[in-house]
Amino acid sequence: MFERAVLPRVLPFGCYMLFIVIADLLQRLGLGAAELRWLYGVKVGCVVLLLWVFRREYVELMQPRLHLRTIAGAVFAGIVVFLLWINLDWPWMLLGESTGFDPTVDGRIDVPLALVRISGAALVVPLMEELFWRSFLTRWLTRPDFLAVDPAHIKVATTVVAVILFGVEHNLWFAGVVAGGVYSYLYWRDRNLWSPILAHAVTNGLLGIWVLATANWRFW
Fold this sequence. Notes:
Helix content is 67%, strand content 2%. It has a two-stranded antiparallel sheet with strand order 1-2. It is mostly helical.
């Protein structure tokens, strides 16, 4: 039962991280951005496939619908995180360098490529990451039988650990810590995983629109 509960929440995230390693390896072997531009689509496709295969295991997604007030709060939180994300980019807030994702070809945005990127970031990543970081890891660090842990009873110490790890997963580590803190608070307050998923989706969706509008590819 333990493995059956863990794997559906860990494998999609592990698959996503594996593709990051693969992309880095291929770049080191000499492949350029042009050759790797559709690798993100393959990565998202594999994650979607895993989420679909394990869809019946996600009991935390079968919770009652969010109330209008909760939805408004999650959307507001997502907007705030987006605004902080694009401003918390001082040198000491960065881990390494990020070339980002440039969806342009001959100076023009490749629309299908951009749509794959923004839809993956706004629809797939929030679901996959919140299942792993909030629903699994934060609760599992509280108690191995994590599905029995009420989000309102998650320990502060385990939340801090998960938030820090979530932060260092990103190049903008400090912004990641802030975002992780906000999403964790929503999960604790609303006791419903759809709340941080919605906030995360709003953040990533707005970020994608802003990146396309300003050509700040390093934020992607």
